[in-house]
Design brief:
With about 400 residues, the chain is mainly beta. It has helices at about 255-260, 270-305; strands spanning about 5-10, 15-20, 45, 55, 60-65, 75-80, 95-100, 110-115, 120, 125-130, 135-140, 150-155, 160-165, 180-185, 190-195, 205-215, 215-220, 235-240, 245, 250-255, 335-340, 350-355, 360, 365, 370-375. It has three domains: about 1-105, Immunoglobulin-like (Sandwich); about 105-200, Immunoglobulin-like (Sandwich); about 205-265 and about 330-375, Immunoglobulin-like (Sandwich), CATH 2.60.40. It has two helices and 25 strands. Strands 1-7-6-3 form a four-stranded mixed sheet, with no helix packed on it. The radius of gyration is 32 Å and the shape is elongated.
């Protein structure tokens, strides 16, 4: 890699070069400065908002900013995994070149994790963009396969850190992509978890309504709702049409709360259900057995570490992770449906006007959507189904003589 990392080059006007031991592939998509080329997708140049000039030079990849190297700036060039040779073998490691054009060499860092709030799981290769305040210089990197990231070296200071679900893989944050931000004060290096979600400045709308039972109906909305908001019963107005007679609301529940309170859990007695239950029980026993074996091995290793030869240093074993490192911070699950429980049974064949006041989406934008609930008629009882069917005559045919 050229130039060498940690170099201070006030008059630098060359290209950053990554050289390989053999000829590399330039990919099927050429580099046109749009961030869509195969090699452009593998280079992160910070701090700049423009797509850098990435060129293929047989066994080298060269990088240069479109605006040129600016004076007194700390630059960070990161080559991501995925560089392929002519046989299709791809690199797995990252290469980083950091140098300055006159500014002091940076020694700061930021680390954290990017998590998708909708799935409650880390985002592999999530885009991380840290803006140095107040200059808004952007420094970028990608999270690893389990959502963890470490951005270094960067200048010390206050940062506004973006976590982005980069759906089109252009290494840029687009307005339609899920994201969230965390402000990190100067002197801190831990960002924590960035819970990414879809931001929307418009209020929620009602997509559909459905009757659940004689006293409950569900409402599905166009966006995920704020899980920290608990709507009181008087925020839901239900009026029977056409006379607009009010129907009092007893409770407003999420789908999970409704299933817990009003739905019985019936065991699946089908062969597939029994097989699934047996498989889950076997997996649970296997995990418990593995945990027991692991705990016994750690205890035995610690006992062996206590025995040492005279004059030999005691081997230090790593501490047991009792805090559950790798687990995500608890956050409520997202939902886009509410169940409304009323005090009087819904009239079959009736129509009800429904208004929800002050409901919030994830961006805390409030709205008062309206809809009409149509209760279906009860199906008429078919008495013919209650009559016993005539039993077929299975006796042999016999002709009377």
């Amino acid at each position: 890699m050229e130039p060498d990392s940690a170099a201070i080059l006030p008059d630098f006007d060359e290209e950053v070069s990554f050289a390989f031991s053999e000829v590399i592939s330039e990919g099927g998509s050429p580099n046109f400065g749009l961030g869509t080329g195969d090699l452009e997708k593998l280079v992160l140049l910070s701090p700049t908002d423009a797509v850098p000039r990435v060129r293929w030079r047989r066994n080298r990849i060269t990088v240069r900013p479109r605006e040129g190297w600016l004076p007194n700036v700390a630059y960070r060039v990161e080559l991501l995994p995925g560089v392929a040779d002519l046989s299709g073998n791809r690199s797995r490691g990252r290469s980083i070149v950091t140098f300055t054009t006159g500014a002091p060499f940076p020694d700061g860092s930021l680390n954290g994790r990017v998590v998708a709030w909708s799935t409650q799981r880390p985002i592999p290769a999530g885009l991380v963009e840290a803006l140095l305040l107040p200059d808004s210089l952007p420094y970028r990197t990608l999270a690893d396969s389990i959502g963890n990231f470490r951005l270094e070296p960067i200048p010390r200071g206050e940062y506004l850190v973006y976590g982005v679900l980069d759906q089109n893989r252009d290494l840029r944050w687009d307005l339609r992509e899920d994201f969230d931000t965390v402000r990190v004060a100067a002197g801190r290096d831990s960002v924590g978890e960035i819970w990414v979600f879809r931001h929307d400045t418009t209020a929620v709308r009602v997509l559909s309504t459905e009757v659940r039972d004689s006293l409950s109906f569900g409402i599905t909305f166009s966006q995920m709702l704020n899980p920290y908001q608990r709507l009181p019963g008087d925020s839901i107005l239900v009026r029977q049409l056409p006379d607009s007679a009010p129907l009092p609301v007893l409770r407003v529940l999420t789908q999970a709360e409704f299933d817990t309170a009003f739905r019985r859990a019936t065991p699946d007695t089908t062969p597939a259900g029994r097989a699934r239950a047996d498989s889950l029980r076997a997996d649970s026993l296997a995990r418990a057995r593995a945990d027991s074996i692991r705990a016994d091995s750690i205890a035995a290793a610690r006992r062996a570490a206590e025995i040492r030869l005279p004059g030999a240093e005691r081997r230090q074993l790593p501490a047991i992770d009792t805090a559950g490192r790798g687990r995500l911070t608890t956050k409520p699950a997202l939902f886009d449906k509410l169940i409304i429980r009323v005090v009087q049974p819904l009239r079959p064949g009736g129509r009800y006007a429904v208004e929800i006041r002050g409901i919030e989406n994830l961006s805390r934008v409030r709205g008062s959507p309206r809809s009409v609930l149509a209760v279906p008629e009860r199906p008429p009882t078919d008495t013919t189904l209650l009559r016993p069917r005539p039993r077929p005559d299975t006796g042999a045919f016999r002709r009377d003589r």
